[in-house]
Write a structure and sequence with these properties.
Keywords: Cell membrane, Glycoprotein, Membrane, Symport, Transmembrane, Transmembrane helix, Transport. This protein is mainly α. It is 76% helix and 0% strand.
Length: 439
């Protein structure tokens, strides 16, 4: 009896994959059942819609709590003058680079364009509803002045802005402004507010955990409805191209990290990979930068030679605001969904995606599934139907595992660069089995 109780439960990512497979099979079967498609639309699809709404529900609270909590953890804004300024500056640059790489790849590969006109028409009909509002918004952006985006960044009413996920940039602006102001006031006066937002952040993260427990059932409903409403096989071919585009971009980011690290610190790629590999493997298995943080700090300090003062400052901030893998994925996913719906995003809109994905990744919690939540804001900004999440959720879990590896690798890279820049990068304290870890 004790032995049975000690058995581990099936991991969530396996449950999601099973739900995905069962949803596809169920949808295929229902295509050959009398009134099967109607049954799926009336009795199965609503559960998928509820799942998407639950993700949208916590998007704005997640940004507010995560950003304000992360900024206030800096404690002293003056720290940004040297180590802090370099850390955040490098994080922002690498994030912009990641988003740009994602946009270049998705525009070159065009995975969404492999969907036929018939399937695209069905997608627009079944998922986007009335698309005229998106066309009107695109025209409005085209007719706006050159500084309209900057003007729109500042909300005139934060409560009004918080009523729509489309105002994600305004929410991020307010959260950053609020967080910096909270740090600048005396600690004893801001302690209660800081504790409040830290508590809210913990609650939101728990809500993410609870929502993700329903992910297998949400995936089942979404995929079943997707099959009966757009059963064309080219959709799944496009999904494969999309996944490969994301993975190729993520691999490219790791290569870029290694090149930058080697050029600046004069350390070999083998040395870097030997030191960080265990943290990368843990990141892949947990899909959580936060869960991997203790191991990342140990590897960076003990095996890569980064001074503890640097690693204890750079890495926690990185786990909060440095989500290069997530931002790259958001850029690719947003354009892919737009392509799937036959939308032609202008250069201005895609530049806006760079800004939105960069800032949204700062507020993306370091837990599994949070990237999908933040993607809602990116889609809302670009006027892309949020129901398009159904197209990519089937492969989100394995991609989440891959992009977490990139997030952790980026944190380690930046910690080495910052340590080198202030002469706090020395020899590793531990030289044992890891010298032969990567041949």
């Amino acid at each position: 009896m004790a032995e049975k109780q000690s058995k581990k439960k099936l991991a969530l990512h396996w449950k999601i994959m099973i739900g995905m497979a069962l949803g596809i099979l169920f949808g295929i079967v229902m295509l050959y059942v009398s009134n099967g498609p109607d049954i799926v639309k009336d009795w199965i699809k609503p559960f998928g819609s509820i799942f998407i709404k639950s993700l949208k529900l916590i998007a704005i609270p997640l940004i507010l709590a995560s950003l304000i909590s992360g900024i206030t953890n800096l404690k002293d804004i003056s720290k940004l003058s040297k180590m802090g300024g370099r850390t955040i500056g490098i994080y922002i640059v690498t994030t912009i680079l990641a988003v740009s790489i994602g946009l270049v790849l998705v525009n070159l590969v065009k995975p969404g364009n492999s969907i036929t006109d018939k399937t695209r028409t069905e997608l627009v009909k079944n998922y986007s509803g009335d698309t005229q509002k998106y066309k009107d918004e695109a025209k409005r952006q085209k007719d706006a002045g050159p500084l309209q985006a900057l003007e729109d960044l500042v909300p005139e009413n934060i409560f009004a802005a918080a009523t729509s996920n489309r105002n994600m940039l305004q929410i991020i602006f307010f959260a950053v402004f609020f967080g910096i102001s909270l740090v600048l006031i005396p600690e004893e006066k801001g302690k209660t507010v800081q504790s409040f937002f830290n508590g809210v952040n913990e609650v939101i993260l728990k809500m993410v955990d609870l929502i993700m427990l329903a992910a297998p059932y949400g995936v089942f409903a979404l995929l079943a409805a997707l099959v009966v409403e757009a059963p064309n096989p080219d959709l799944f071919q496009a999904l494969g191209f999309y996944a490969l585009t994301v993975v190729f971009g993520l691999l490219g980011m790791i290569v870029i990290y290694i090149i930058i690290m080697s050029a600046y610190t004069k350390k070999s790629p083998k040395f870097f990979l030997n030191g960080i590999a265990p943290a990368q493997l843990l990141a892949f298995s947990t899909s959580s930068s936060a869960a991997t943080l203790p191991v990342t700090m140990e590897r960076v300090t003990e095996h890569l030679g980064v001074d503890e003062d640097v690693s204890s400052f750079v890495l926690p901030i990185g786990a909060t605001i440095n989500m290069d893998g997530t931002s790259l994925y958001q850029a690719v996913a947003a354009v892919f969904i737009a392509q799937a719906f036959g939308m032609d995003l202008t250069l201005g809109t895609q530049l806006g995606i760079i800004a939105t994905a960069t800032l949204a990744s700062i507020g993306s919690a370091a837990v599994p599934g949070a990237g999908m939540v933040m993607l809602v804001g990116v889609l809302g900004y670009a006027g892309i139907p949020e129901a398009g999440l159904a197209l990519i959720f089937a492969v989100d879990r394995p991609l989440d595992m891959c992009r977490t590896v990139v997030n952790v690798t980026g944190d380690a890279t930046v910690s080495m660069i910052v340590a080198k820049s202030i002469d706090k990068l020395g020899e590793p304290k531990v030289k044992d089995w890891d010298d032969n870890f990567v041949q």
